[in-house]
Amino acid sequence: MTPSQQAAAFLTLLIKECLRFIRIWVQTVLPAAVTMSLYFVIFGGLIGSQLADVKGLRYMDYIVPGIILMAVINNAYANVVSSFFSAKFQRHIEEMLVSPMPNWLIVAGYTAGGMARGLVVGLAVTVVAAWFTDLQVHSWPVVVAVVLLTTMLFALGGLINAVFARSFDDISIIPTFVLTPLTYLGGVFYSIDMLPGFWQQASRLNPVLYMVSAFRYGMQGVADVPLAVSFALIIGFVVILFAAAVWLLHRGVGVRS
Amino acid sequence: MTVPALEIENLTKTYRNGVQALRGVDLRVEEGEFFALLGPNGAGKSTTIGIICSLVRKSGGRVAVFGHDIDREMEAAKSCIGLVPQEFNFNQFEPVEEIVINQAGYYGIPRRRARPRAEACLRQLGLWDQRRVMARELSGGQKRRLMIARALVHEPRMLILDEPTAGVDIEVRRSMWAFLRETNARGTTIILTTHYLEEAEALCRRVAIIDHGRTIENSAMRDLLMQLHVETFILNTREALAEVPAVEGYTLRRVDEHTLEADVERERSVNGLFEQLSRQGVHVLSMRNKSNRLEELFLRRVGRAQP
Ligand SMILES: Nc1ncnc2c1ncn2[C@@H]1O[C@H](COP(=O)(O)OP(=O)(O)OP(=O)(O)O)[C@@H](O)[C@H]1O
Ligand SMILES: [Mg+2]
Fold first, then answer.
1. Minimum mean pLDDT among A63-77, A174-188, A206-220, B50-64: which range?
2. How far apart are alpha carbons B53 and B78 in whole angstroms?
């Protein structure tokens, strides 16, 4: 394919993926906005008002970046894992496999679709958050870069999950048993400085911590870990997962007999 | 000699579960042909097609599409092919028009050019009125036609149809035949698998038969039909017959008082039979083949003919 044909194919995938989650927005965009509103009301409003400030911020304000990023992560992942798995399950993945699209392009298209959903949901949650607190942005470039890279990382993760999945149960195992614990323990609701020594060190093994920390820096100028470390780690993960996804499609794992 | 549209040499495939689906398939389809790929259930037709379209990984052998080896020039090979698979494989929850436009996009055609093409394909297949309908709401026959529209939207040089008329009513089947003939006349090479042998006979000029994963026949339809030495006809007579009329050179059997069965060897003409019958005052009102000729041959070749 020529570069302009590749561009057309990429756009096709992106538009298709966006139309898919927009068509079913009640299942894809609305739940995150509702759930995250509950977090704001309960943890921020009711419980948070009883708590001391964290790193000089009101508790409600402190948890906003983490909650937005949590929604972004979940949705980027969920979009690709369910879309790609259902393409396998209904076999319309064959529409792509018979076409001359190279594998990296399929990966890129699905990833972009997941990123789009992450961004749309992120925006929705931000709008909700703005209703509860005064939002501030310390550094736009950092905010934008963190959100883009994080959605990319988890969209790729969702794709790899879908490649290996054989049933609908398999696409909820990783979100339930890996993703949710990692985000909850990734400094969304607390600063790791508040943890005892051992748990502080253990938290540093959690990649989500680095993303939440960098995102919080972008919004509020405070971070648990240095910014450069966060970016190096996220970019490293993105590169590895992209290569893995392309390799899996190339080998036909889960898609070609 | 020009480059063949499809060239397959000694293709083998063993599935992961150990099933040896292909044990050495050879095929050669020239550009512009209307080609029938026949074989009993499980013979390996869909497996062969899957390999050509890179949905199935081959175990051994060589496949070239318009001279592009699928191992070395996969993109170029894929660009030449439009596939209508045996099983429905579109997104059931996507509108008809989107499915066709997206498929064009996968071949690198931008949306603004894909739209009019999708419209043309959907109109040709009588699906334009259903364009906004979710695919799952289509009838079985409409779904088959949707897959044909989808396969043609990037204007492939070769169209491969895996049982496109399964479960399609007679009227729609006839219109599909006309459509496929036109498509072929415009220069598209067509490979068709079907279990309706009269369909293959009516449409295809060349035919290959696969059985147990091997090509056991690959010839012109005419030559293949010539192999049939004896044809059996059913004759309906005006006069009620109490016994079999005596005729020379033909074998007659009486089915009931108005029906005769006649075996006619290829070298003989049916005129001779009619003459002898008229001389005995027997008038033939109508006549038909007892079974489709290709069917007869097919059963003999795959070794399942009744003795
Ligand atoms: N994905 C698969 N995994 C394992 N075995 C398979 C698979 N697909 C097909 N087979 C086996 O390979 C053999 C050939 O199957 P194939 O589908 O190619 O036959 P076919 O000629 O298309 O038959 P039909 O006329 O019934 O469509 C069969 O024995 C079938 O059971
Ligand atoms: Mg088949």
1. A174-188
2. 7
* Region A35-56 average pLDDT: 81
Please tell me which residue, B278 or B26, carries the higher pLDDT value: B26
Which residue's entry shows tokens 């259930």?
A: B41
Shortest distance between the Cα of B205 and any Cα of chain A, in A, equals 27
pLDDT at A22 over 70: yes
CB atoms within 10 A of CB B76: 16
Give the separation between CA B38 and CA A136, rounded to whole angstroms.
69
Q: How confident is the model at residue A197 (pLDDT cuts 50, 70, 90)?
A: confident
pLDDT digits (tens, 9 = 90+) for B168-189: 888 888 889 999 999 999 999 9
Residue B42 Cβ < 6 Å to ligand 1:
yes
**Residue B116 in tokens:** 């009019």
Q: Listing from the earlier edge strand, what are the strands of the sheet with B81-84?
A: B68-69, B60-65, B6-14, B20-29, B214-220, B206-211, B34-38, B189-193, B158-162, B81-84
Query: Which tokens is A81 given?
Result: 């894992």
Q: Which residue of A92, A106, A166 is the best one to mutate when testing the B interface, meaning the one whose CB has the most B CBs within 10 A? A: A92
Flag whether pLDDT at B307 surpasses 70.
no
Strand partners, B158: B81, B189
pLDDT computed for residue B1 by the predictor: 61
**Chain B residues with CB inside 8 Å of A12's CB?**
101-102, 104-106, 111
Structure tokens, B255: 């089915």
Element at B22 (helix H, strand E) = strand B20-29
Ligand 1 centroid to Cα of residue A136, in Å, is: 61
Kindly write down the DSSP assignment for every residue of B124-163, as one continuous string. Answer: HTT-GGGTTSBGGGS-HHHHHHHHHHHHHTT--SEEEEES
Q: Which of B8, B13, B45 to mutate to test the pocket of ligand 1 (most atoms within 8 A of CB)?
A: B45
Tell me which of A93 and B250 has the higher pLDDT.
A93
End-to-end CA distance of chain A: 25
Q: Is the CB of B2 under 6 A from ligand 1?
A: no
B194 Cβ closer than 6 Å to some ligand 1 atom: no
Look at ligand 1, atom 11, and give the residue with the nearest C-alpha.
B21
- Ligand 1 close to Cβ of residue B55 (< 6 A): no
Domains of chain B: 6-225 (3.40.50.300), 228-301 (3.30.70.1560)
Of the pLDDT bands very low, low, confident and very high (cuts 50, 70, 90), residue A149 is: very high
Helix-, strand-, coil-residue percentages of chain B, each rounded to 5: 35, 30, 35
Residue A228: which residues within 8 A CB-CB, separation 6 or more? none
Using alpha carbons only, what angle is made at residue B174 by residues B168 and B176, rounded to the nearest 5 degrees? 75
**φ, ψ at B189 (rounded to 5°):** -70, 135
> Which of B106, B112, B154 has the highest number of chain A CBs within 10 A, making it the mutation to test binding with A?
B106
Give the C-alpha separation, B177 to B204, whole Å. Answer: 11
Segment B84-96 mean pLDDT: 94
Q: What is the pTM of this model?
A: 0.86
